[in-house]
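In keeping with the milestone schedule agreed at the kick-off meeting, the structural modelling team has produced records for the first pair of proteins. Each record is given below as a sequence line and a structure-token line. The laboratory manager (R.T.) confirmed that both were archived under the project's standard naming scheme.
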Amino acid sequence: RVSTAIINEVVNEATMWMAPPTVGSRSGRIYYSMQIGASPPTIVFFVNDPALFTDTYQRYLERKIRDALDLEGTPIKMIWRGKALRDVGRAARKGDSVPSNIRGGIQPATGSMMGLMTGKGDKSEKKSRGKGF
């Protein structure tokens, strides 16, 4: 297994040489990546939107990782994960419906939980804490 720091260093260097693609006004951004499996090596990329990363760019990153980590002849499995929770929170604040591709088991924040996310606490929660808190 390869540490997250080393994989991120390799990915960061690769993105410095060739920036992620831009689709319209949106450009792809890789927040971080990590290895989650060893046989075959499986690397997860946490990105803003997986749809922004073309097949060509994915092959480019795979080649750079393969060269840097000496994985010649070894298949590499790459998983691209977007920011689903952020999208659910935005949809809940706007009152929009949650997109079906990120609905799987994630519930939008409502009620007092939304207050915790925005920093506006619920008064009923403060009363239930008791004196001195």
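The second protein of the pair:
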Amino acid sequence: GDHIFEGRTSPGMLLSSVMLVLGAYAKKELNHSTLCMQIWALSQGLMNGITSRFSSVPLRATHTAGGQTDSGITIAQALIALRHGRAVPCMRKVMINAVCCLGLVFGGWMAGRTHKKWGVMTALIPAGALAFSATLLPKLIAPPSPMVLAPSASRAALV
């Protein structure tokens, strides 16, 4: 789950993106809608399993009801804390949920615009975005690695 936040490739997310492509292939080339839906359902289940394992906050990327509820509670707690001059709770999950919801809306909008032209092959767009998130994004958002001194340098610093 934490691979992408630690700067490492997420094999599970990459597999999920490959499954999206395989589902599109099953529909387009094999004309097998049922197989397509089964592969896509498995891809979504895998994605939920991966995103439910973030160490700091479980997040179900493929559905939003629980995240919306958690975000609403956190925002209410933050408003109450601000009103009483107390520290605001961590808003990380609220922000991640907001990004996911915007992605959901944007993805639906884009699917509506592209599906008539490309049909089931439209699934290649989110598959590519997911593959990017699994492989390149971790390198872009990785936390800085701690500076490690060579053994001779650390001894010299102590003297």
